[in-house]
Amino acid sequence: MAYQSLQQEYFQIPIVTRAYTTACVLTTAAVQLELITPFQLYFNPDLILRNYQVWRLITNFLFFGPVGFNFLFNMIFLYRYCRMLEEGSFRGRTADFVFMFLFGGLLMTIFGIFVSLVFLGQAFTIMLVYVWSRRNPNVRMNFFGLLNFQAPFLPWVLMGFSLLLGNSIIVDLLGIVVGHVYFFLEDVFPNQPGGGRWLKTPSIIKMLFDTPEEDANYNPLPEERPGGFAWGEGQQLGGQ
């Protein structure tokens, strides 16, 4: 019974969030079990171009380090904000969400060459957080019960927290920059005088991922609800 309930809960997670978080967890488990090593996963342009190890273009986004606080912290934020985006502003637009993944991943890969980053998963998580925070500017956040601020400050708070833990802020800055590029091209520039929509999801992606009908009984996770923990907990301004 418990297994069936868990299975049902798992398959209620929207498909992109489910696929990405599952891939991250399985990759980390494979490294922990020594089935593979991080040296087979990291981003290396020379090995990609000369040895045709093209899987590194994907696997560098799937490994967040060994199981520990940093891994759990990243997984919680990745799952939460990826799911809230997919069930919120990308509700019924799976193809557009996949295209955002591809666009963000491509930009990070290009930038990663110049800043010598070998794993880009954390930067990708920050990108998702940034886009969600800019699309929900009126949500009040509570971070570890210590800080209260509005949602657009969340990526910067996470960057400061990363700095306190002794991590490089280059990763967080990369996620913020790429998130801002996407947000500007998708949400800001099209609404400016003389602006237009530069990011258009290719029809082949729409054909593969968009479905014409949705389950009327599906209950998405509201974007303004905290999600069961107080790390970046949010509340809509003017709400109860």
Protein architecture, described:
- Keywords: Endoplasmic reticulum, Membrane, Transmembrane, Transmembrane helix.
- It is a single chain.
- The protein is mainly α and 240 residues long.
- Helices cover 55% and strands 6% of the residues.
- The chain is built from ten helices and three strands; from the N terminus they run H-H-H-H-H-H-H-E-E-H-H-H-E.
- The chain has helices at residues 2-11, 15-32, 45-50, 56-59, 69-87, 94-115, 121-135, 154-164, 170-188, 203-209, and strands at 139-143, 147-150, 231-236.
- A hairpin with a 3-residue loop joins strand 1 and strand 2 (147-150).
- Helix 2 (15-32) runs antiparallel to helix 5 and helix 5 (69-87) packs across helix 7.
- The longest helix is centred in the middle third of the chain and has 22 residues, at 94-115.
- It is globular, with a radius of gyration of 18 Å.
